[in-house]
Amino acid sequence: MIQWWQILLLTLYSAYQILDELTINTSAGSPVFAGFITGLIMGDMTTGLYIGGSLQLVVLGVGTFGGASRIDATSGAVLATAFSIVTKGLKPEAAITSIAVPVAALLVYTDVLGRFSTTYFAHRIDTHIENFNYKAIERDYLLGAVPWALSRALPVFLALALGGPAVQAFSDWLANNAQWVADGLALAGKMLPGVGFAILLRYLPVKKNLAYLGLGFAITAVLTTVFSYISTLGSGVSALYGIPLVKELVDQEKLAAFAGSFNGLPMIGIAVIGFALASISYKNAVSRPAAAASVPSESGEIDDDEL
Length: 307
Known about the structure:
307 residues, sugar transport
């Protein structure tokens, strides 16, 4: 059962995350951050990061250009994480497909509603500008944030307050009567991040930077292989702690922990190399002449949009 204070905190976060996405841009409105916050509030950060990270990959290549609306994966991550943790038998993969994705799609309508509502305050601000009424401009600007906040907070609150028994009943029905449906949902949940990554590759200038893409895969394979062998070696060495002579010579706790000490190093190495390559690419793009920078990019790709 979700506690009242958990519902309150998640509702307040849902109201804030869309405002952060529209104005402050601290990444607090991203699905992976939503999964982290929800997991922290619900007491299971592992599940929260798994669901949030999976949904982050789903929408990684999806953007909102102009006044376009997109699926609200952030609110989907909040509800999927909360219900996955509180509902027994509901796997994170099934929560992604049965809760997060439908919720993310449904909240497109509340997003449109929020956009329509703010136009009222925008027209009022136009009038205040003509009258040089600066206090009124500030007031209506802040009031315009209310429809945006409610467009996320209200659906999340209603779902958390009223949806618990329904989600529990749905989970029990899947487990008892339609296990094949549950297995299918879990499989679909594992496939969604791959779909998101494919969308991202579709809109990135892959053809022009194919060398970087290949290099990234090669570095990933090399580092993962090297450190997995080191970890395997550590497992073998740590197995020796049962020998009496080794017990006397070596600290048992340090020896046993040696096997897992390299688990995070491949991703750290990949991240550092990726950051270095991104910095080189950025500096090259900035140093190009304006005429060269204005050359049209490949069809359908986003190229130097932020420069």
